[in-house]
Design brief:
Blueprint: H1 3-23, E1 32-33, H2 35-42, H3 46-58, E2 62-65, E3 69-72, H4 77-100, H5 104-119, H6 125-142, H7 146-166, H8 173-187, H9 191-209, H10 226-235
Helix pairs in contact: 1-3, 1-10, 2-3, 4-6, 4-7, 4-9, 5-6, 5-8, 6-7, 8-9
Length: 237
Amino acid sequence: MKASDKVKHRTDMISSALRSAILERVLMPGMKLPEDSLGERFGVSRTLIRQSLERLAAEGLIELRRNKGAMVAKPSLEEARDLFELRTQIEDLVISRVIKNMTPDIIAELEGHLAKEVEAEHAAEPKSIRLATEFHILLAKLAGSPVLLRYVEEIGYRCGLTLSLYARPHSTDCGIAEHRQIIEALATGDEETARKLMRHHLNAVADRALFTTDEGGPLVYLDALEPYAKKVRDGGA
């Protein structure tokens, strides 16, 4: 592997690890993310950490503050409502594009991800939030539009952060069933039904999430990152 490819691979792994830690509430909204401490934790240079933080800042998961460093973003309730409304409109277009590109392989990929959601059904709720968010990111990838993917990633991850921050506890059964119904409609090529199901699903997610102001527990600091960092250290050598 070329040196440049190795650097990109490590940066991708760090970004993925931090993203998961944020969406799974290991790193809480408002928590500071010092580059030197993260570099020591992941066993990489501050340069790689900075690149990863910049990527997550572009996704709306991290805020980079001049002369104050990085912190996990903390979206307001008003922003959260706007995000869900915008997300509904964008994912309406995603459904139309996926229908046009439909193949058995696409359905198999969606069903494979749904199987992961089912497997994690009784795990910690933040993990279910991450997997549910990734279902929508996958749909956007399958739409075949880099522009749509970029916007769905940014809005989807930001909504996932909002869910981890404000959502009241609820069963994951509803979300999994809704994803399954959407896949079934896509498999039959029923665009109108798929779009209706997606709008209903996103509205239901917003209703389940909006919202409470309880942040759900004490602040956990960087020691909680160890399982995520270890995967990067072990896989990035």
